[in-house]
Amino acid sequence: MHIDPHFSRTSALANLYIATRAGGDIVFLGAIIRHLLETRTYFHDYVLHYTNAAMLIRADYQDAEEADGLFSGYNPDTNMYEDQDSWDYQRDERGWPLMDMTLQDPQCVFQIMRRHFARYTPEMVENVCGVSREQWMQVVQALVENSGRERTTALCYAVGWTQQSKGVQIIRAATILQLLLGNIGRPGGGILALRGHASIQGSTDIPTLYDLLSGYMPQPSAPITSQPQSEEAIGATTWGKQVDTKTNALSQQTLTEYIDTSGQKLGWWANTRSYMVSLLTAWYGEASTRDESDRGYHWLPKMTGDHSHLVTSYLMLDGKVKGYFLFGQNPAAGSTNARMQRKALEQLDWMVVRDLYEVESAAFWYNGPEPVDSSKIKTEVFLLPAAASTEKEGSFTNTQRLLQWRDKAVDPPTDARSDLWFVYHLGKRLKELYAESTAEKDRPLQALTWDYERDEPEPGSRILDEPDALLVLKEINGYYVYTPAKAEKNGDEQSHERASLRDAAHVTGFAALKDDGSTACGSWIYSGVYPEPGNNRAASRITDDYTNLQWGFAWPANRRILYNRASADPEGKPWSERKKYVWWDEEQKKWTGYDIPDFPLNKAPDYRPAPDATGMDAIAGSDPFIMKPDGRGWLFAPKGLKDGPLPTHYEAAESPVHNALYKQQSNPTAKFFKDRKDNRLAAVGDEHYPIVVTTYRLTEHHVSGPMTRWMPWLNALQPALFAELSPELAAERGIKHGEWMIVSTPRGEIEARAMVTRRLRPLKIAGKTVHQIGLPFHWGFQGKSTGSITNDLTHMVLEPNVSIEEAKAFTCNVRPGRVKQE
Amino acid sequence: MAVESGKPLRGGLAFVKETMLSLRKEPPPPPQPAMGFFTDTSLCIGCKACEIACKQWNQLPATQPFWSGTSYDNTQQLGATTWRHVQFIEQIGRGQPERSAPYKPALPLLDDQSLEAKNALPETAPGTALPFFNSDRWLMHSDVCKHCANAPCHEACPTGAIIRTEFDTVYVQQDICNGCGYCIVACPFGVIARDDQGDHHAHKCTLCYDRLKGGIEPACAKACPTDSILFGEVAQLKAHAQERVGLLHQRGVDEARLYGADDTILDGGLNSFFLLLDEPEVYNLPQNPPRPSNHVAPASFWTIVAAAILGLMGILFFRE
After folding, report:
1. Helix orientation angle between A25-39 and A109-116, rounded to the nearest 10 degrees
2. B-chain residues near A723 (CB < 8 A)
3. Cβ contacts of B132 on chain A, cutoff 8 Å
4. What domain count does chain B have?
5. Which of residues 5-34 of A touch B (CB under 8 A)?
6. For residue B216, is pLDDT > 80?
7. What pLDDT is recorded for position A486?
8. Which DSSP category does A299 fall into?
9. pLDDT at A281 over 50
10. Would you call B129 and A737 a contact, using CB atoms and an 8 Å cutoff?
């Protein structure tokens, strides 16, 4: 079943296609949640035992239903939920959440959800999404019939759900749905993100994101203003101190403070200390070991705010950023509000661009859609050629957490080099440059372990100094810092002879990681990918026609389905024979099945934790969601999100209609950047911008075009930017199929060919006709096929949790003609 | 043609031997089973990997970029340098086709407030009430040379450039083709074309003859991510295709049909045949093209008759 604003090639092969308004997703999903709750068609046993449906929430919790779209704890001056305490569970004297297993208590999550979604009716779906009751009912019917003991359903999504100012909450709604249907942790179930970039899963696993350390440990932060620390309170889910939900509220200046605030007392994250110390040992080696109390933690850079790409663009625009390394990314055409991005690049002192071609972001200083005066631009651009994916070896992580090793096929041409080569040699030169410095700020650079040289040059290659990708993989996998004990020889129990990365023994998995500096590991979730010399599991390609445990390596520990404990009932028996996946073997007293169990191997289903248990001991034998302190899937999220514990329908920042459910029009915690001139937004129902616009991709081109618009074969397949619009809208505006048209928003105007097609259709929203158009965003001013930049239209309203842009639902106007060339 | 002076007889013999050597026919390659394509449009996702794989393997030049506005099809037709071409046919708003059983959502609303109520999810048989395909359709079809069992281009070629290979595929030998163009007008599908920008010879899909000789499948079949393009022995492909059509009919896709799998088309069928989801004309394919060679006998006969009549008239009127 394909639900999308436009009928795409995916729709063509679907059993069912449903046209919907971009931005109405939480109503569509929320109505299904309401339906499941009211008709009792959720998977009762799964919900009762495996989710927090029975947990009681504090009495001072106020739902969006009671406050016109806002939850308790909102501060209108800062636009933040600064005080999220009221969202927490009611707890007993030992801190365990209170529960009502009959699901009747008005404060239990189940009943709160019923109240929260009460007005998300099929009529509301018609009103907000433009989807008829009958069509919506087909979806519900299919979901219900294909979930439960005997059948499972998977939800797949892409940026249509995430590139919205409420994107994280949309995913939350899908999660609630799948938990209610019992589809998480089961074969054929789950929620799958269809990624859009090669190995982008790796960009969060071994992160290039500013707010994460390897393995999803948070990046340390250093608040600019010090905040008083909270009193120790009962019900704390961290070691000792109550976690304030306001960002940067607590000091994390020492390793101990960091573990106290970001580790967890209960559940799997109790191991944070081992992972963190092993990471520091991998990065800072001997220097880390010598620093016994802090392990070099104080050398880690600390966040002082939102350093994400888009927010940093504004800092760039304001002249606060001097230099920029740009690897395989093209913000001048590919990032939102691209005109502002180009202006921001003009304020840099220097930038280094590594790419296959001279992309828009490297050429902005002399070329662009608007006239460019190079004499006024001081940015010095270093364009360095990069190796293509076939010209280097390394790992590649797919969306389902699967690592696959890629071999190198040919040398890159002339001076082109891999990113690994570039970063390694840059690091080498920087270390040499600062080797004699006595400044404290240069200590981390000096302490950094940095030897990935090959023992011998790569056979068959003319490049003699390519680093050894397998050594990097070994560090990521983890190794023992000390050589094996030479007990007989020395009479010692433990050798203190330090091994080098090359000689050290591999660890076999993250269970071996310690917090005493005796292990090093670049990313604990990847540990086990390279457990011994000669066994790169990411390179393995053995199939078995089912789980394929020997095809590549999935983190963590090669588990193919996360939380697969949930594929068996609380007693450890599969929910059904047909869907059995992992189950408890009573004879052997262990979990077994088709996958690596995502559960302690020997923990019996009837294990119940002692009241003072911590770490994994606090997780019962029937709690599949081991990463959560309560071991349950969270229907209601008491903490962790900036915009609410339950998904709530908000309109997009630009919308033709008012929010039909609440007075609160759009996400109250989204970052609006209202004071920015380049970020003018259309008002709600603005008659100058009445048309909903969404952006998407084609098969023939890739993102903003650096890898495809230099290729004549691909350019012949899709030679020009076009906008897709319905015949009704075209007739209304006098736009003829095949001719030029202009799309305009408060940020700018672009031109495109008009693709008038029935694959877009007008919808009835709130009683009036709302038109939608769709635009691919592949074109720019460089390359062999050029065209307008679609991202010149989009705005800079960012989702509050992850700072992603809202490129999938905004408003515009259209008219025939071409943009005037100045 | 140099002949050594002073040894005319021996030089002449050597020359004759040399010439005869070059004229001697090579033993033909051992015959293989007939190989071809089964292109199943019900699996095509319109990704055009086949078009690009063909271009890349054969190093064919790109056509001039031209935004046609014909749905997502900007290459428009097979040609001298386009040997796989993906068509897009939008059929949106056709209306709901007649179904044997009307679709009715039928979920009970439970009044039972008891939370001990057993799991209300119904046991279901495989397959739900959803149709196999949407009623709104976007047909996608990877067109290619049909490698006809009785290929009109092969019959029309006056130079013998067009041959049937040991794989029973139809192949243009580029070193013999003189660009006369007879094959182009003979092909009822508009496949073969002359490269007027380049070498002025006729070109078309070779069924990756060079890859077949190396024991590997054609580039388009290898690239196709859904196995919409299947390569193999024609007899096996035809059996598989029959099963596939049967399955689709079972699932209510009544419009599914095979094109070229039996002997109807051109008195022998197509070694590269298709599963279509509508009438051939919708895909710009002729329903049942006549064989051009059918005209040879009657045309020859009437030519002879006309010649005889004119000859007799000539004799009669110019007796003097």
Report:
1. 130
2. none
3. 15
4. 1
5. 7, 9-17
6. yes
7. 46
8. G
9. yes
10. no
Evaluate the CA torsion angle B152, B40, B139, B137 in order and state its sign. Answer: positive
Mutate to test the interface with B, among A103, A145, A735 (most CBs of B within 10 A): A145
**What is the value of pTM for the model shown?**
0.91
User: Is A144 in contact with B64 (Cβ distance < 8 A)?
Assistant: no
Residue B128 lies in a domain: no
Contacts of B129 in chain A (CB under 8 A): 138, 141-142, 145
User: Would you say residue B126 lies in a domain?
Assistant: no
Closest CA to B58 of B86, B35, B36, B80: B80
Residue B121: is its pLDDT beyond 90? no
Shortest CA gap B99–chain A (Å)? 15
Write out chain A residues lying below 8 Å of B71, CB-based.
757
Option in A738, A755, A759 nearest B92 (CB): A759
Question: Cα dist. A48→A42, A90, A321 in Å?
Answer: 10, 18, 52
Q: Is residue B99 part of a domain?
A: no
Distance of CA A604 to CAs A295, A511, A683, A716, A746, Å?
A: 37, 19, 58, 61, 61
A666-707: pLDDT as tens digits: 999 999 999 999 999 999 999 999 999 999 999 999 999 999
CB A69 within 8 A of CB A659: yes
What ipTM goes with this model?
0.89
Q: Which residues contact B301 (CB under 8 A, 6 or more apart)?
A: none
Closest-approach residue (CA) in chain A for B81: A713
pLDDT at A201 over 70: yes
What residues contact B246, with CB distance under 8 A and at least 6 apart? none
Which tens digit of pLDDT belongs to each residue from A712-770?
999 999 999 999 999 999 999 999 999 999 999 999 999 999 999 999 999 999 999 99
User: What is the band of A305 on the pLDDT scale with cuts at 50, 70, 90?
Assistant: confident
Residues sharing a CB contact under 8 Å with residue A25, sequence separation 6 or more, in sequence order: A161, A164, A170, A173
Smallest Cα distance from B93 to chain A, Å: 7
Interface of A with B in 712-771 (CB under 8 A): 712-720, 722, 737-738, 753, 755, 757-759
State yes or no: pLDDT of B2 exceeds 50. Answer: no
> Cβ contacts (< 8 Å) between B120 and chain A: which residues?
39-41, 44
Please tell me if residue B134 touches chain A, with a CB cutoff of 8 Å: yes
Nearest to B48 among A38, A104, A717 (CB): A717
B105 with B76: CB under 8 angstroms?
no
> Quick check: A244 pLDDT over 80?
no
Tell me which chain A residues have a C-beta less than 8 angstroms from the C-beta of B138.
7, 9, 11-12, 759
Domain of B225 in residue numbering reads as 31-91+136-295
DSSP-assigned states of every residue in A17-72: EEE--TT-HHHHHHHHHHHHHHHT-S-HHHHHHHBSTTBBBPTT---TTTTTT--T
Q: How far is CA A557 from the centre of its chain?
A: 21
Q: How far apart are CA A169 and CA A176, in angstroms?
A: 10
How many other CB atoms are there within 10 angstroms of residue A158's CB atom?
18
Residues from chain B that touch A149, judged by Cβ atoms under 8 A, are 119, 121
Candidates B169, B172, B194; CA nearest to B181 is B194
CB distance from A783 to chain B under 8 Å?
A: no
- Residues A108, A112, A114: CA angle, nearest 5 degrees: 120
Pairs of residues, one from chain A and one from chain B, whose beta carbons lie less than 8 Å apart: 146
Enumerate residues 87 to 106 of chain B having a beta carbon within 8 A of any beta carbon in chain A.
Answer: 90, 92-93, 103, 105-106
CATH number at residue B225: 3.30.70.20
In a domain, B231, yes or no: yes
Q: Give the other-Cβ count within 10 Å of A269's Cβ.
A: 21
